[in-house]
Amino acid sequence: MFRCLGVLIAWGGNNETRGIRIYRIVGCDFLHDTGRSADVRAEKRIAMLLWDEDSRFVDCAKGVLDQLKGDGYGEPGVTITMENAQGSKLKLAELVTKFANAKPDMIVSLGTMPTIAVTKEIKDIPVVFGMVYDPVEAGIAKSWKSSGNNTTGASPLIPMSTLVARSRK
User: Fold this and answer.
1) Where in the sequence is the domain holding 86, given as residue range(s)?
2) In a domain, 58, yes or no
3) Do residues 30 and 73 lie in contact, with contact meaning Cβ atoms separated by under 8 Å?
């Protein structure tokens, strides 16, 4: 059994972060024995998948990596493998298969396309997504209250009322 409760994000930041900074991945018990395997490894493995080189995905990946490291989830206890689908659905399918076979302790997917691909194929590994505008509409999560599956993540979806209120300040 695994739990992955959420990603806390905050709006603001500077031009380098394009207004979004991931502050903390919370509630992800991937660092504990999940019961998925009799093989209990001292080192944990995270697989990260980006859709392409767009700055929003690269910036998000940097934010996740910085936060993990800041929270003590860096080398040598955690190995992070980062892959990029380079905007190719064919390469994306190959990378999802690679991750499914590698069985990491957690997958971080950045972008709607890789998150959909990962969640269709992989049901037994926690998936933390970022830069998915509407995970419910995309079929990744069942509702905004609970994904109902092995996913959790952050969305840049902001209600229009919030955008208007912040633009007036």
Assistant:
1) 6-168
2) yes
3) no
Taking only Cα atoms into account, the Rg of the chain, rounded to an integer number of angstroms, comes to 16
- CA atoms of 19 and 39, how far apart (whole Å): 41
Cα distance between residue 11 and residue 140, in whole Å: 23
Point out which residues pair with 129 in neighbouring strands: 109, 153
pTM of the model: 0.74
Does 1 fall in a domain? no
What is the rounded distance in angstroms from the CA atom of residue 17 to the CA atom of residue 11? 10
Q: Could you tell me which of 7, 26, 39 has the C-alpha nearest to residue 104?
A: 39
pLDDT, tens only, 35-60: 444 344 468 999 999 999 999 899 98
Question: In this structure, is residue 45 part of a structural domain?
Answer: yes
For the chain, the distance separating the N- and C-terminal CA atoms, rounded to the nearest angstrom, is 45
- Total structural domains within the chain: 1
Q: pLDDT by residue (tens digit) across 117-150?
A: 999 999 999 999 999 989 999 999 988 888 889 9
